[in-house]
Design a protein that fits this description.
By secondary structure, the chain is mainly α. The chain has helices at about 1-10, 20-25, 30-40, 50-55, 65-85, 90-95, 100-115.
Length: about 120
């Protein structure tokens, strides 16, 4: 949940996730000239289609707008990062590529444990 909150600024009362993008992509026939300006990463876990297409078993970026598919794919990648490093912090750095990102997620987790 903390990763989703960091990735999508997700809260119970407000989500950045926009399911109507799926319709825009479908209408555009998944053309890269339309998809690229709209988003480079998709869904609640902000999965990058080009990097995780095979891992997720998806055919188009639109598939990543399905909440279940997106979360399953994001968690799969996060788990692979953890299995490789055996460290939560290192897995978070792997997931997003930055120490500041990892720190923010860890702080969110700490807030949930305390609050």
């Amino acid at each position: 949940e903390a990763v989703i909150e960091q990735e999508s600024n997700w809260k119970l009362d407000a989500m950045r996730y926009e399911p109507r993008l799926a319709q825009k992509f479908a209408e555009a026939g998944y053309r890269s000239d339309v998809i690229t300006p709209l988003a480079t990463s998709f869904g609640l876990m902000q999965v990058v289609f080009g990097l995780h297409r095979e891992r997720c078993g998806v055919e188009s970026p639109v598939d990543l707008l399905d909440v279940e598919t997106n979360v399953r794919c994001g968690v799969s990648y996060l788990r692979a990062c953890f299995d490789k490093s055996k460290s939560v912090r290192a897995a978070l750095v792997c997931y997003n590529g930055g120490e500041s990102y990892a720190q923010k997620v860890i702080e969110r987790i700490a807030q949930k444990l305390v609050g």
